[in-house]
Amino acid sequence: MVAEPVDVAVIGAGPAGLACATRAAQAGLSVVLLDEQETVGGQIYRAIERSDAQRREILGPDYVAGAALAAEFARSGAAYVPNASVWQVTRERSVHYLKDGKVGSFEAKRVVLATGALERPFPIPGWTLPGVLTAGAAQILLKSAGEVPMEPPVLVGCGPLLYLLGWQYVRAGVPIRALVDTTRNDDRWRAKRHLLSALRAWPDLRKGLQLIRTLREAGVPIHEAADDLRIEGAPGEDGTERAHALSFSVRGVPQRIEANVILLHQGVVPNTQFSWSLRAAHRWDDAQLCFTPQTDSWGELDVTGIFVAGDGGGIAGAKAAQAQGEVTALAIIAQLEAIDQATRDRAAGPLLRRLADARRIRPFLDSLYRPRDENRVPQDDVVVCRCEEVSAGEVRRIVALGCEGPNQAKSFGRCGMGPCQGRMCGLTVTELIADARKVPPASVGYYRIRPPIKPLTLGELAGE
Amino acid sequence: MNSAVANEADVLVIGGGLHGSSSAFFLASRGARVTVLEADYVGRHASGVNAGGVRTLGRPLPEIPLALMSREIWHNIVETIGDDAGFVASGQMKIAESEAELDECRARVALLEAHGFAHEKIIDRASVLELEPALAPHVTGAIWVEQDGYALPYRTTAAFRRAAQAREAVFHEGTPVQRIEQRGERWYAQTPSGTFSAGHLVVTAGAWAGELAQQVGEPVPVYPEGLMLMVTHRVAPFCRSTLGATGRPLSFKQFDNGTVVIGGKLIGIADLPGRHGEVDFARLVRSANTVVDLFPHLRHLGINRAWAGVEALTSDSLPVISPSRRASNLTYSFGYCASGFQLGPGCGKLVSELVLDGVASLPLDAFAIDRFGAVATA
Fold first, then answer.
1. Contact across the interface for B281 and A463, Cβ inside 8 Å
2. Cα–Cα distance between A160 and A362 in angstroms, integer?
């Protein structure tokens, strides 16, 4: 493996990565942007350069906003490596990737992790049945291929992405069986404390209210304050069990909706696989119920020369990610001495204000759409680690045997040791162990994440 | 050092790896009151993350009696500690890939026979392929040890710990020992959670043991290495025995769940103060090549994870299993040079003999702490 030298390697072509790579390249640095997809845009602007007018009309103005960013990146002079999955970043800033079955490497002076967010696991009874998808996955199908469910779906959970998907389905003429919302009145009371600061982000707030109003006006049945969620299975045409109905209760009254497609969502969390694998310091964010990497105000980790930009450093959305990508680029440009610190600070001023503005709505949203305890720390019979099929009860059993954290859970019972490397179960297992031990999640910690972060075969590593 | 020491025991064991847990188990089984101090958690480092080879095959001559004695315990592991530790007597095989390599194997077996050891046997190409039909056809023969196998490292260490606890041994995790000191005959160990004291001290601290021996004034040429392993996704069963190669480094086994663990003394990066082993993928390329040469059908098998455990290596590739030559009531057992897993049960027993009887039931001269001569102190 001969590594190519480069000033800046940016991983992830969402808003943070695009903005960062563009700004750094405009300053004359040699920049490479690596991304897993065929085209730029990340999850939020997925396939933005390929979407036609009809799809843009369905997906709405927040999606179309990505087109300008993508165009500016294309003109910036930054190198772009699509279809590249980065499987290891070292503390010495080697970036190893796989493209078309071949491994390659960059030696970067600075590395920017702009790997965005993942959907939070939603471990309820039946969540692993065929026919159950995350809302995010369904939305990616809509953005990249214009695909919609074959049968009317039930949308379950809470959070902006869930309502946005519903709104997009309505605009696409897709019938929705129901929206089953887990948000309750006490969530609204809690959120009201943050309303004043959220009001300064009034356009975002208004947009959110409009989404739900559109669903109501379209006649989508909306059930609020749902708890005791359970997905029921039944044999499908080929005899295997698949999702057949959602049962839940509202203020103690049992409800049941038959549906073969169930879309779950309860928010997104930072994708921290790289920052954990680099052994960077992380902190538990009790408002967002997740770990976030600790950085300075420019996004630099406690691993020299490695930065995090965008939702990977804490969920704040696309506008914040874009501003943060530019802020990080400025820090790097100054570190590599293309500008002095005063120039950096002058240029960063308006960006930091934009970043602060974009973050103002978060305490309100985090509070309003805080996923319920019962939907994060499941009952015993629910599978938490899908790869190795480890149930919540099994995790509780090994805690009773003396398992104090996720890494011992791996060793005790293979939890988190499957192909997804704990991406799907990490936060669930942390919170489950914390709950069983009656200690805060921060003192339980997280899985040690080991490379390869993305799939790599023996033959590919062997260079065949 | 504060004089009010509440944490009294007969024996203080520093290091809660397999050797510490096994030593604690055998000591406690004979009625000693044992306290184990572990800096991280039990089985965190080499003991919990090694390849799990239960291997007498290929050991240096002085280790062979110990390995054969330990093998007896492995074959009675359920009766001993009440857990099967995931032990499977799958056999271990060291493959020759050319006539010259097979000659090397023959010479090795002849040497062992001259010393009266008959556990390693030469098998021909046909027998190799009969035992392991998925192997590439270029193999020429092998050394075969039928009674070797593999076990689950973390489970083994945890099972020894639980068995020791059932015999009243006390384990303190997250309790790193900062200083050891002898006053009169008694030993004292300072930790952030207080001072522990016992009549006898046992040091089973792996890569971190050198620092403690240094404190006693008997430095050992022991250095840490990050030994790398990788594990694949699950694949249908195709290989029963644990494999090594003669001409190139390899340790290879398929576990019951279908995953394949690949290693073979691959040196990564050891961060001793950071208590972490780091992977160097460039050096794993060679193992990947070896594996796809021997099992071409694994070319498309995904690597799930690669990691490194921090091991203690010595200048002569043998461990230190020895009473102190400088102080009384002090016993060492460390520096197993990435081959200590199989020896864990047996050496725990030998340590208990050194502590309680003053002498072990097998000769340990080759493992004496003063065998290295003058060592430059760091």
1. no
2. 11
